[in-house]
Structures are given as C-alpha cells and as structure tokens.
Amino acid sequence: MFRKFLAVALASLLAGCATLSRLPPPPNSAATIAPASYNADLRINSYDPQANSVVTALYNKAIAASDGTIDIMALSGGGAGGAFGVGVLMGMQRSGSRPQFEILTGVSSGALIAPYAFLGPNW
C-alpha cells in the first residue's frame, strides 16, 4: 500500500516538473489596437509631444495664481458619493478654507456638482 502511495506521489511530483512549449506572441499587441471610435486627440499620454504643452500651461497657471499653487478637485459620484462631495464643499465653505479651484473634474453625480463648485461659493 505504501509503495503505491509513494509511486503516485512521485509521479505527481515528476509531472509538476514537466513544461509546455510556449506559443509565439500574437502579431498585434492588445495595447496597440484602438477601438473603432477612438480619437487620439482626446487623450494626453506621457509620451505624447502635446503633453509638454499641457504641463507648461499648468505651470504658467500656477505662476499666475495669487498663492502660487493650482487648486484641483476631483469629485466622485454614485449615490452617497455625490452627497459626500456636496458636504465637503459646504464644509470647506463654512470653515473658510475653500480655495478658488483652477481645475475641477467629476464622475457621475460629481460631474453634475463640478460646474457649481467651479462657479464659486455664491452658488
């Protein structure tokens, strides 16, 4: 009985050492394939020559800002996330710590809140 168990165990260990030959990579990498409606002008990649102009514009905005910083806010969304974003903006307004945002972005309900946050505290 022990010999049968030992034979099965050794056969299992030996099978673990077996390798399969690898297939060659596909001719087109998934990273280079773009969707049918893809517009390359909509994205700025770090290797894109236009990325430098965006960074330069942000740098110039920071220099022109009164405090020398760029205030950016990204608002999330999705039910309670949207209510949380409004609460954060209200809390910043009431405490007097709300900056004038240069860049605002949002997702879902955060995208609906972002224009009002960008307009300033009067809204």
Would you write up a description of this structure?
The protein has 4 helices and 2 strands, in the order ααβαβα. The protein has 123 residues and is mainly alpha-helical. It has a domain at 67-123. A two-stranded parallel sheet has the order 1-2. β1, α3 (80-95) and β2 form a beta-alpha-beta unit. α3 (80-95) runs parallel beside α4 (109-119). It is elongated and about 85 Å long.
SSE inventory with pairings:
Layout: H1 2-16, H2 49-64, E1 72-75, H3 80-95, E2 103-106, H4 109-119
Parallel strand pairs: 1-2
Features:
two-stranded parallel ribbon, 2 strands, 7% strand, 123 residues
Structural class: mainly alpha
Could you tell me the number of beta strands?
Answer: 2
Number of helices: 4
Q: Tell me, what's the shape? A: elongated
Q: Give the DSSP E fraction (strand runs of 2 or more residues).
A: 5-15%
Low-confidence stretches: none
Mean pLDDT: 77
Elements, N to C (H/E): HHEHEH
Rg, Å, rounded: 28 Å
Main sheet properties: 2 strands, parallel
- Give the strand line-up of the largest sheet: 1-2
Helix content: 40-55%
Sum this structure up briefly:
This protein has a domain of 57 residues.
